[in-house]
Amino acid sequence: MVDCSRVWINHELYYHLAGMADPCHTARWIGSMEPAGEGTVGKIYKASLTLENIPKLRNYYIIKTQKVSERSNREKRIMKMISDDLLAERAPLLFPFLYLDYVCENTLYLVVQPAEISLGDVIAQNVQMSIEWWAETLYQLAKAVYYLEEKQINHNDLTFDNIMFQNQSEDYEDIALMIIDFGSAVHGHQPHNGLPPFVLGRDLNYFLYMLIYNGVPKGYFPEKLSNELFPLLMWENIKAYHNEDPYVYNLRRANILHHNWRTSGKHLSRWLAKYYPFVTERCSLDRLDKLYGAGIGAVVGDAFGMPIEFDHKHKQIIKKMHPSGQFEGLLSALNLPAGTFTDDTQMSLALIDAIMSEDRSLIPTAVAREFKKWADSDPIDIGTHTRKVFGAMQLDGSNWEQASYTAYQKKPKSAANGATMRVWPIPILHHYSHYSQVIDSAIKQAQVSHMNNDSVYAAVFVSCLIHRLINRAVLENAINDCLTLVKNYVSKELYKALSSAHLLKYKELNGGNGWIVHTMSVVMWALRNTDTFADAIIRSANVRGDTDTNASITGAIAGALYGFNAIPLAWLQDIDQYNEWNYWGNQQMTIERFKDKIATLAQCN
Predict the structure, then answer these.
(1) How far apart are CA 39 and CA 417, in angstroms?
(2) pTM of the model
(3) How far apart are CA 454 and CA 416, in angstroms?
(4) Which of 24, 167, 481, 579 is the most exposed place for a label (fewest CB within 10 A)?
(5) Strand pairing of 28-29 and 60-66?
(6) Cα–Cα separations (whole angstroms), residue 151 to 101, 241, 603
(7) In angstroms, rounded to a whole number, what is the distance separating the alpha carbons of residues 253 and 255?
(8) Pair 91, 82: CB distance under 8 Å
């Protein structure tokens, strides 16, 4: 009898994540995944697979197919190098597999992410793609090759059919590219069965020649981009065969045996980012600064406003974080340490947990389940409306619509700020996607507990604003764009707060008791009358009322505007100090742990 117990080297981790007792017996057999020829695992199309009931690991499906030739043993070793990094979230998400291994005699298991269409199929459709589309495609390809070259791996078969897209789209912002078929790959400086050793720049030198030579005459590759890229190519000084076709001859010459740093993944990705700046690096330092700024800015604002929440007597202007016991606010009796965050941050963390539990998808039932779990954990602070909704909700969140709508029917004019205070994970989740996805997810998460239009569309407005600022929009332009989105859905009072509250004087403001109009008046007044993160938080928190929520929303937007590095170090240190109230799950949420959650949510690990 064959021992099937040791499926992967990392089998215990796989068992845990996939929730299987034994993947060797529970994985589905997929006939269409049988190898097509020598050493290839086969191209992966959604149309060719029935994905229902196939075990999943993160966004990957666990399938099994026939054992293939020795050529795939080399492929397997290289795939394992990459998949170990993918598993540890150190590799870019540009490869459709996690791990390949032989188990149970003639069966191999593949953990694979389905793709929809190849570059070859896109070209065959004769659809004229924009120069932006091609620049983004080349940029993602260069980033993938950059990663491989850092490990001294040459793919050696970078053809149009081995470049896959997760979805078919003409919008360059929606492209998600992957490389498949490592059957001809080499690693390091040892040749293998006629394949030369690793050469820097070989893969893209060869690919770009094919693309330029075929694409420009046939009209599918932009001539402008071709003219700019062609000088980067390098040619081997070899003789042509008798009567050899010129294209085949140049193809052989382009399969270089000497390093060409100009067509290396590192150089080409930087070249494209320099001359085609719209191909912003998904996780550049600048973008990460804004992503961290949005999330951690919200946490800092929450903690900053915590001690004076609903303390309507204090007259002191606070300019740093304080323990709650120094004031007469809602949480003064608990004497919480400076830097303690409240329900604003806790609900945002529950939202992140819900999203990650569904493979980075926003499923309202999952959101309701995580919110219900949090509400039942006896949190230090919970809004009146929120308490009522989750008090009527089942543990699995399945009746969220009924619970939320019943609360709305009882008080249809009650427009609370709870859906907006927790919304900052949404623009981080969709930071590199079209804003329509931001709107859809913001509405879904809001309606789990809030059905009033002002409650819902204030969350949409804030999500839109953070998303635009992460993508480098000017504040005033972003505000105008987002106002246009919500204008026809919000009350006159809320629209006035969003559009012109910055014109109010301090004495005219009301920090409120949770009404979204009061909250957004304070937020917009603080944002548009300051020019630093710290000043925006100080102004927002010092308008007496719902100070933690007002400052938290202000912090999310200001953080996306000014970035994480603009947050005062002393405030970050207050969050980082030991605090039994700042636990989530079984660990204290430090700044670094918030960064980890944000990076994972944004796919920037």
Answers:
(1) 57
(2) 0.61
(3) 8
(4) 167
(5) parallel
(6) 20, 35, 21
(7) 5
(8) yes
Domain boundary assignment for the chain:
11-112, 117-275, 285-310+322-601
pLDDT at 112: 55
- Condensed to tens digits (0 to 9), the pLDDT of residues 45-100 reads 333 344 444 444 444 444 444 444 444 566 667 777 776 665 554 555 565 554 44
State both tokens at 424: 């900052």
DSSP 8-state assignment for residue 219: T
Helix runs in 363-434, H state only: 364-375, 384-391, 400-410, 418-421, 425-429
Q: In this structure, are residues 339 and 321 in contact, taking their beta carbons and an 8 Å threshold?
A: yes
Beta-strand pair 97-103/60-66 = unpaired
Asked if residue 581 lies in contact with residue 325, where contact means CB atoms within 8 angstroms, the answer is no
Which residue, chain included where needed, has tokens 């996805």?
437
Q: Tell whether the model's pLDDT for residue 580 goes beyond 90.
A: yes
Structure tokens at 398: 């399945």
- 307 pLDDT more than 60: yes
For residue 452, what are its two tokens?
Answer: 């009033």
Q: CB count, 10 Å around CB of 247?
A: 12
Angle between helix axes 547-562 and 533-541 (nearest 10 degrees) is: 170
Dist CA 594 CA 235 (whole Å):
49
Q: Which CATH superfamily groups domain 285-310+322-601? A: ADP-ribosylation/Crystallin J1 (1.10.4080.10)
Query: Can you give the length of the chain in residues?
Result: 605
Which fold does the domain 117-275 belong to in CATH? Transferase(Phosphotransferase); domain 1 (1.10.510)
Whether 109 and 23 have beta carbons less than 8 Å apart is answered as yes
